Amino acid sequence: MADDYLTRGLWICVDGVEGVGKSTVARALASGSAAHLATEFSSAPFGRALEGAVRTAPHFIASSEVGQSLVFLGDFYEVYASEVAPLLAGGTTVISDRGYLSKYAYQEVVLTGALGDTAARGLLDAIFGHLPTPDLTLHLVASRNVLRERLVARDGECDDARLAFMAQAHRAALRRLVRAPDLRVTTIDADRSLDVVTAEAVHATTGLDRSTRRS
Ligand SMILES: Nc1ncnc2c1ncn2[C@@H]1O[C@H](COP(=O)(O)OP(=O)(O)O)[C@@H](O)[C@H]1O
Ligand SMILES: Cc1cn([C@H]2C[C@H](O)[C@@H](COP(=O)(O)OP(=O)(O)O)O2)c(=O)[nH]c1=O
């Protein structure tokens, strides 16, 4: 009988706030390797719709914050079920651009506004409790000024409200890591040049082996 523990791929999530370099680093990791770069949104009709909505208004897209967050989480489940899990089972390593930790942190910010922090975390812990944790999270972090410069260069603007949301999301991610230290995380200072950041990301993934996999 095949031992899927020995043959399945690794799930590596590249996380952090927008502008920190997730897509750039995830693409660099996947290129030239056999790993698959997983998209943030699913190819189901609701995933496509959500992707379009985020492009128009990255942070507040619905009148119900709970409804909005559940849609994001529903599509994260869909990405996992339709793309990540089958590839892992087939032995392919998957690199997610914005994965487990960022999804948790962003929804915590949005849900806390509606439910308060205790209920928000309770709901998130229950929902995320049904997903496996990644084998490795690469948590990219950068300073506010660097993030603003990169987002202005990339998107043409970055207002204070967006930066404030990102700061909240960053703090939520750190709280999640401290509260439930179940994720294997490498934190990477993304203020530095792309070459240095990418080299550190490659280094962090190189040592991954069976002993670090989910049981
Ligand atoms: N280490 C880096 N140094 C300089 N520019 C970077 C670095 N990482 C990313 N960038 C640039 O910053 C912008 C945001 O990067 P991106 O990968 O799109 O971030 P994210 O996916 O986290 O939103 C892009 O224009 C990218 O080229
Ligand atoms: C509105 C909302 C956005 N998000 C996330 C999805 C988007 O990837 C992110 C902000 O949008 P975007 O600027 O497109 O992010 P990035 O530059 O990292 O690709 O916020 C949530 O997770 N929950 C939410 O409720």
Automatic annotation (TrEMBL):
InterPro entries associated with the record: P-loop_NTPase, Thymidylate_kin-like_dom, Thymidylate_kinase
Q: What is one Gene Ontology biological process annotated in the Swiss-Prot or TrEMBL record?
A: dTDP biosynthetic process
Keywords in alphabetical order: ATP-binding, Kinase, Nucleotide biosynthesis, Nucleotide-binding, Transferase
- Where ATP binds, per the record, is at 16-23
The residue ranges crossing the membrane are: none
Record keyword Hydrolase present = no
Give residue ranges for domain Thymidylate kinase-like.
14-199
Q: Which Pfam families match?
A: Thymidylate_kin
Question: Known EC number(s)?
Answer: 2.7.4.9
Q: Which reaction does it catalyse?
A: dTMP + ATP = dTDP + ADP
**One GO MF term attached to the UniProt entry:** dTMP kinase activity
Q: Family membership, please give it.
A: Belongs to the thymidylate kinase family.
Describe the task this protein carries out: Phosphorylation of dTMP to form dTDP in both de novo and salvage pathways of dTTP synthesis.
Q: What is this protein called?
A: Thymidylate kinase
Identify the species of origin.
Saccharothrix syringae (Nocardiopsis syringae)
Q: What's the encoding gene here?
A: tmk
